[in-house]
Design goal:
The complex is a heterodimer of chains A (about 625) and B (about 525). With about 625 residues, chain A is an alpha/beta fold. Chain A has 32 helices and ten strands. In chain B, helix 3 packs across helix 5, helix 9 packs across helix 12 and helix 12 crosses helix 14. In chain B, the strands form two sheets. A seven-stranded mixed beta sheet of chain B has the order 1-2-5-6-7-8-9, sandwiched between helices. In chain B, strands 3-4 form a two-stranded antiparallel sheet. The chains are: A alpha/beta (about 625), B alpha/beta (about 525). Chain B: This is Fungal lipase-like domain.
Chain lengths: ~625, ~525
């Protein structure tokens, strides 16, 4: 067996994790074990309904949004919406990671000694392990990925924890590979979260009693178990079919209408899932494919088997011991895009066959891989356009800007009047670049790019360069056509999403090592300027150009037509931000202080008293002296 | 590997079956047809509205959604294929909002339509009630079997008029219902989001005569061993068209069989391969057409940037872009000029013609969403490019462009802008510099050209009859009035006063005819006030 393929997890580690997970049954919350340079934390599972669905939670699946401050990476960067997780699991984690707990102290110690941590657990203990791993990643690992060892998370028959954004965020940060989830073929627990709370409420306590490994009274056949199994699988089928239709994007409008009548579980598989057959272990990391497999591997192959499955769906939750013991003798295969491209559907088809997946089911799994292939191809298409992007940006940077500067008003002002042939050329390039970036935006919104794309450093850096260089031209264009008069301020009505997404990507990579979020950083900075009552200031600055350096000109345009007394706070905020923007490269100080610059001309008209105390006084004076 | 659209069809079918919506609807249909004695259903709010016509409906307020069930008497054989023609201008037409530019009228199934209109008072009341429900975020299902389903469809179409895009859309579920729409209505709905609100459940054994009435919406076709969901109406026709089969289908049994099939592993292919191929081909074409429209909008911006630049360079040599284009057409020289005509202008024209076509296919209310999206760029395009088409037109020696030569898509773009801009246009700033302004009336140059032709006639025709001369002179006066109006409204570009412009040519000629008769315009021109026209004050 080639477990090395599972990114740093070998057979011994899995066995040790399983043994630790069993020991955790008898503990209050967790069991800690050291094995060489590795520290293992195994969490105790719970088999009460309140620990699966938080009693106070009124939503249909017991879900809740993750806190942005505590988990800044667990969201979509561009759109900004946070990941959703099961509230009961999250509450349980919160108790465990409280700084007063022995768990917290132990993690701190392990981190201090740079030991690798493995989080593990059986059943809902696995759900805790998943969230604990995310917590560790956000709190420690991300601050210094070169110093802190990568964590690992090994779960056995764990319920699903988070939604598609959860899975997307792990993929984007390249963290998915840390999570390995073992699933025995019929185990009901990894499927439970796909069912509506209301539909299983009645039978859940009984079933949980049967699932509890410390409960000696396991009954063989039971009507309530059959009912529970049937309900869960029906809802699983609904979720799997809906997800498939959405993924392959057909009949969108009808699907949308239909879906508004359905209660659909938000939970999706995240990380790698390892399914087990007689002969082999099959590892899958494509979340869409896993979802289909969760449904299709649990179907009966004939009528006779059908009646036995409900019981097996309970018993398989107890069969991880056998799985771990027999692991060494089994083959290990990756059911992934790589294999899919290598030999089409042949070997994948036969592995799925061994897992009891029907012909039709196989087609669904393969179609999910086909969609992944399309996402990879889309990324390649975009990457092919990089040279063109770089070429156009370089022209603006090395030809257009210097020529404009020679005329003593920067490229912003030159573009705004557009009297030269170069302004026209720049306009064409602006439109060409907008086309490319809007296309990327469209793909990213529809989820038609690989998860990693949104977080890729190279792309974010290119998008940042684009935003800093070209957004001023868009602002100039907006004001040249006086759209601020008939449509509204640029920041409120005119700012294209391609810049907003680019800004958020940039903020994300800058701030994530500090574990901070952009809004907090911005408002902290504003508060530091001491301009008055916090709430009033926040109201005044809502959606102002001071939010982002590349919107500097939009703020100047807004302020320049208004009396100073009306906009004093905004003027001072802009001035307060400017220094930081110049240092960060958001604003080009060789441009804005030029003699013909709209900014400079406006600044000169400000009241003497203001100018006397302005942080820009030196700048403006320097320029005057120099000329 | 099985084709993806066949997989989608069956995934969507399974989704519909496991959703439970069919059972909820069907059980209420059974109830209205076989009312249980002493019914004390607390969710049943409006019970039984028996009408003389025989149409009944009930509202059930369930926990998750509200259900409206229609029931109609069995259809009369003799009238089963009658149709009623409705025109957009008919006062009696309850559906004028469905008509599109291309299809100003359509026909409906007469028995269903008559039942629908016979109950119009109570249905109007029901409409306002359902709108309240939808506003409170609760979804609405409208259902019925056989002719009851046909009325349910009509009712849903009617309800959809007032549903804003932000509200939840209702879903109409019919069971074995006669088709109600002719080819025109099918075509209108095909391009509409409304099409997504109809789910027609049909047994695969049923054969429906489709020579006059056509399918719209999504069909769930039920076979013994499973079901498929298909939206593509060509495929639906291929699968269901045939000699009308009146054999009654028991949908209780059909639904039970479907439930059974969900558990079975039999994966029989339900649709023939060639039907699937057709679906795929048409879906691809449709996506392509739509994607292209949005993707190309950006290319069009680039072409507009070129023409904007062209306009700017023309101004520098004291000739407006209109006259430059006209001369260049006659004596092509520079590559840039040729490119403007052959590439940018023709691409822009092609694109905007296709946008107008797309919009005209849609029902009015859907179209307005699209119109708004393209409003400003479309208007910009019209004002910028139409003068160039006019230049070509008059160069060919023709006249009276506005009434005889104008392309349909310009007329439509202007009409839409006129309708929408009432809502948007703000007070224009009096002091604004007009140098980048595009003349509001995109046919302005046609007026100038026609007026030049009139002057030419007056000057060259020997022995002209007095009444003819009078008509022509009146035309000139009218043109002068028009000119003065757009100047005082500041709606014309200052470019027309450039030395080499056709308008200045017109003025020189007109001045001679006018002699010493003074007017606002002659004073404006003679005293060279036009030199400061449009400069920022």
């Amino acid at each position: 067996m080639a477990f090395e393929a599972l990114a740093g997890i070998n057979g011994d580690l899995i066995t040790t994790s399983w043994i630790a997970s069993k020991k955790a049954y008898q503990t209050e919350r967790y069991h800690k074990e050291e094995a060489g340079t590795v520290v293992i934390f195994a969490f105790r599972p719970s088999f009460t309904a309140e620990d699966l669905f938080a009693p106070a939670n009124i939503s249909s699946f017991g879900e809740i949004k993750m806190n942005r401050v505590q988990f800044p990476c667990m969201r979509k960067i561009g759109k900004g919406d946070e990941a959703t997780v099961n509230e009961a699991f999250l509450r349980n984690l919160e108790v465990i990671i409280d700084p007063r707990t022995s768990f917290y102290a132990s993690v701190e110690m392990s981190v201090g000694s740079r030991k690798q941590i493995v989080f593990t657990g059986h059943s809902s203990g696995g759900a805790t392990a998943i969230l604990a791993t995310v917590w560790y990643l956000e709190k420690y690992f991300i601050r210094n990925p070169n110093v802190y060892p990568e964590p690992r998370c090994v779960t056995f028959g764990a319920p699903l924890v988070g939604d598609s954004i959860f899975s997307h965020a792990l993929g984007r940060e390249n963290w998915s590979r840390f999570f390995v989830n073992f699933v025995t073929r019929f185990d009901i627990v990894p499927r439970i979260m796909l069912a509506r709370k209301a539909s299983i409420e009645q039978t859940l306590p009984h079933v949980l009693g049967q699932l509890d490994p410390t409960n000696p009274s396991f009954q063989e056949s039971d009507q309530r178990i059959t009912e529970f199994y049937t309900t869960v699988m029906r809802d699983t089928s609904t979720v799997a079919n809906q997800a498939f239709c959405e993924l392959t994007g057909s009949a969108e409008a009808f699907l949308e209408t239909l879906s508004s009548f359905l209660e659909l579980s938000p939970y999706r598989p995240a990380g790698t899932f390892v399914f087990s057959t007689e002969k082999r272990l099959v590892a899958v990391n494509n979340s869409d494919a896993i979802l289909q497999m969760l449904f299709y591997t649990s179907q009966a192959s004939d009528e006779q088997e059908w009646s036995l499955i409900p019981v097996r769906s309970i018993r398989d939750h107890h069969s991880y011991e056998e799985l771990v013991q027999s692991m060494g003798m089994k083959l290990f295969n990756h059911l992934d895009l790589h294999q899919f491209l290598l030999d089409g559907q042949n070997s994948i088809g036969s592995w799925l066959n061994e897992l009891g997946v029907s012909t039709r089911g196989r087609q669904y799994v393969l179609a999910a891989l086909e969609e992944e292939k399309k996402r990879v191809e889309n990324q390649k298409k975009i990457e092919n356009k990089w040279p063109q992007i770089v070429k156009e940006l370089s022209w603006i940077e090395n030809e257009y800007k210097p020529k404009c500067q020679a005329h003593k008003n920067g490229y912003y002002d030159s573009f705004k009047v557009s009297n030269e042939e170069n302004d026209f050329k720049a306009n064409v390039k602006r439109a060409q670049l907008a086309g490319i970036f809007d296309e990327v935006l469209g793909l990213s919104k529809k989820g038609q790019l690989p998860d990693e794309f949104e977080g890729g450093r190279d792309w974010i850096e290119l998008a940042t360069r684009y935003r800093r260089l070209i957004e001023p031209l868009d602002i100039a264009n907006y004001h040249r056509h006086l759209k601020n008069e008939d449509t509204g301020p640029y920041m409120k009505r005119g700012r294209p999403n391609r810049y907003i997404y680019a800004q958020r990507g940039y903020e994300h990579i800058i701030l994530k090592p500090q574990g901070r979020i952009a809004e907090d950083v911005f408002w902290n900075k504003v508060n530091g300027l001491n301009l008055g009552l916090k709430q009033e200031i926040q109201e005044i600055l809502k959606k102002s150009g001071s939010e982002c350096g590349s919107c500097f000109w939009a703020e100047v345009e807004e302020l320049k037509g208004k009396p100073y007394e009306e906009v004093e706070v905004r003027v001072k905020t802009l001035e307060g931000m400017l220094g930081g923007w110049i240092t960060a490269g958001e604003v080009d100080d060789k441009e804005i202080f030029l003699e013909g610059s709209t900014f400079r001309k406006w600044w000169i008209t400000l009241p003497e008293n203001h100018k006397l105390h302005s942080p820009l006084r030196e700048h403006m004076m320097d320029e005057i002296r120099a000329t | 590997m099985e084709s993806s659209s066949s997989l989608k069809g069956s995934a969507l079918g399974k989704l519909v079956v496991t959703s439970g919506l069919l059972h909820s609807s069907w059980s209420k249909i059974l109830e209205i047809h076989n009312p249980p004695y002493s019914n004390h259903d607390p969710g049943l709010q409006v019970s039984k509205k028996k009408k003389d016509s025989g149409l009944e409906f009930q509202i059930h307020r369930e926990e998750k959604f509200t259900l409206v069930v229609f029931s109609a008497p069995p259809i009369c054989r003799s009238s089963s294929s009658d149709s009623t023609l409705l025109h957009v201008k008919d006062k009696e037409n309850p559906f004028p909002f469905l008509c599109s530019e291309n299809n100003p009228s359509f026909s409906l199934h007469t028995p269903a339509f008559n039942l629908f209109t016979s109950a119009s008072t109570s249905l109007t009341y029901l409409k306002s009630e359902l709108l309240q429900t939808l506003k409170s975020e609760k979804p609405v299902i409208i259902t019925g079997a056989a002719l009851g389903g046909s009325v349910a469809s009509l009712y849903t179409l009617w309800l959809l008029e007032t549903i804003e895009p932000t509200l939840k859309r209702p879903l109409c579920i019919t069971f074995g219902s006669p088709l109600i729409a002719d080819a025109s209505l099918q075509q209108i709905l095909e391009n509409s989001v409304r099409n997504s609100c109809f789910l027609h459940v049909v047994s695969a054994q049923t054969r429906i005569k489709m020579d006059f009435f056509k399918p719209f919406g999504t069909f769930l076709i039920c076979f013994d061993s499973g079901c498929v969901c298909i939206e593509d109406h060509v495929a639906v026709t291929e699968l269901l068209n045939g000699v009308h089969d009146s054999g009654l289908v028991d949908y209780s049994q059909v639904l039970n069989r479907l439930d059974q099939s969900m558990l079975s592993l039999a994966d029989s292919r339900l649709i023939p391969e060639d039907v699937i191929k057709g679906i795929e081909k048409r879906a691809e074409m449709k996506n392509l057409r739509f994607d292209m429209m949005f993707k190309k909008l950006n290319d069009m911006k680039i072409s507009m940037a070129y023409i904007e630049w062209y306009k700017k360079t023309c101004k520098e040599v004291k000739i407006g872009y209109y006259d430059r284009f006209k001369t260049q057409l006659a004596f092509p020289s520079k590559e840039f000029d040729i490119n403007i005509k052959n590439h940018h202008k023709s691409e822009l024209n092609r694109f905007w013609k296709s946008v107008v076509e797309e919009v005209e296919r849609r029902p009015q209310s859907d179209a307005s969403i699209l119109k708004r999206r393209f409003l400003f760029s479309g208007n910009n395009y019209r004002r910028m490019i139409e003068p160039l088409d006019i230049a070509e037109y008059y160069l060919e020696g023709r006249k009276e462009y506005r009434t005889t030569g104008r392309s349909h898509h310009y007329v439509m773009l202007e009409k839409w802008f006129g309708m929408e801009s009432i809502l948007i246009e703000k007070e224009r700033c009096k002091k604004r510099d007009l140098s980048d302004l595009l003349t509001f009336d995109s046919c302005f140059w046609a007026e100038v050209e026609d007026s030049l032709i009139v002057i030419n006639q007056l000057n060259t025709t020997v022995g002209m009859r007095d009444d003819v001369r009078e008509v022509l002179t009146r035309k000139l006066v009218e043109f002068e009035g028009y000119m003065w109006e757009i100047i005082t409204k500041r709606e014309v570009s200052p470019e027309i006063f450039l030395e080499e412009s056709s308008f200045m040519k017109w003025w020189k000629e007109y001045k001679k005819i006018k002699g010493f008769n003074s007017s606002y315009l002659t004073e404006f021109m003679n005293t060279r006030k036009y030199e400061s026209y449009g400069k920022s004050q």
